[in-house]
Automatic annotation (TrEMBL):
UniProt keyword list: ATP-binding, Nucleotide-binding, Transport
Signal peptide residues on this chain, from the entry's feature table: none
Name by which UniProt lists this protein: ABC transporter ATP-binding protein
Coiled coil segments of this chain: none
GO molecular function, one term: ATP binding
Lineage: Bacteria, Pseudomonadati, Pseudomonadota, Gammaproteobacteria, Alteromonadales
Nucleotide-binding among keywords: yes
InterPro entries recorded: AAA+_ATPase, ABC_transporter-like_ATP-bd, ABC_transporter-like_CS, ABC_Transporter_VariousFunc, P-loop_NTPase
Length: 299
């Protein structure tokens, strides 16, 4: 059974159509990215999946049930971007309360609250109130709240927005560690982060699904993305074009080049490219098999 199915899903607010005939089928597994400009319909889609609002037309189901169904209690969770903690209650009391709403006894709720705080390395902060926490710690507590009951599907809206690199890394590592049992759908503007974390990327624009990209496709693409430390672009382009089986090379942004080839030999182009860079004493930063997510979405 598919995790999420949307068929002709549309949502209007008066004269404004936030979503237009969106068709999506998602299966359980690795994290899924939801990207698009502000106003693209990402938050509306999340709200529909959670059952907070109803569609104007079309159908949506999760695990074969309608959003908001009692059958989904404890199976899905959501973290809105601007989720706020109650400033008057300590962390353990808040998380324990949310656990009781899922049917836990008082004793079991406290144990579950401590478990999810352990996942985000904040057990030592359990008795603190939100005002005593940094922004990054408060965000991690909110994520812990979304993990109560070990839901099968978790929707995260900008989970690392405004976080310092250390806290953002902790959240990425947490998502990776839990992805064996929980499927995450992550809305974010950080394409570099999503490229490392997600296997599938959905791109919404003006309420419509413009792209659905599998990051695993890079294994079958006849492209390499070369990022240099610094270089003479024209000299590099001319040298690469002289290699065997090179179809084209373009500088897509400063010091980053997209190379198209027609070699059928595994690693042949990579080896030839590395030998060229060694012979010329040119320093590179990265060689990516395939195209970047940005290139896939906007080229």
């Amino acid at each position: 059974m598919s995790l999420v199915i949307c068929k002709g899903l549309s949502k209007s607010y008066g004269d404004k159509q936030a979503l237009k005939q969106v068709d999506i089928t998602l299966n359980a597994g690795s994290p899924i990215a939801l990207v698009g400009p502000n106003g693209a319909g990402k938050t509306t889609l999340f709200s529909l999946l959670c059952g907070y609002i109803s569609p104007t037309s079309g159908d949506v189901s999760l695990f074969g049930h309608k959003p908001g169904s009692a059958a989904l209690l404890g199976r899905i969770a959501s973290l809105p971007q601007d989720a706020a903690l109650d400033p008057n209650l300590d962390i353990i009391s808040q998380l324990s309360f949310f656990a009781t709403l899922q049917g836990y006894s008082n004793k079991a709720a406290k144990a579950e609250a401590l478990r999810v705080l352990g996942l985000v390395d904040l057990v030592d902060s359990a008795k603190q109130k939100p005002k005593a926490l940094s922004h990054g710690m408060a965000k991690r507590v909110s994520i812990a709240q979304a993990l109560i009951g070990s839901p099968e599907l978790v929707l995260l809206d900008e989970p690392t927005a405004g976080l310092d690199p250390a806290n953002a890394k902790k959240i990425r590592e947490l998502v990776k560690s839990l992805s064996g049992n929980t499927t995450f759908i992550i809305s974010s503007h950080n394409l570099d982060e999503l490229e490392k974390l997600c296997d599938q990327v959905l791109y919404l624009e003006h309420g419509q699904l413009r792209h659905s990209v599998s990051m695993n496709e890079s294994q079958h693409e006849d492209y390499l993305t070369l990022t240099m430390q610094h270089c003479d672009p024209q000299a590099l382009i001319e040298a690469v074009l002289n290699l065997a089986d090179i179809s084209s090379i373009e500088e897509r942004q400063s010091n980053q080049f997209l190379i198209k080839h027609n070699s059928e030999q595994v690693y042949a182009i990579e080896i030839a490219l590395l030998n060229l860079l060694k012979d010329k004493n040119w320093q590179y930063k990265a060689i990516l098999k395939g195209r970047t997510l940005e290139e896939k979405l906007f080229s």
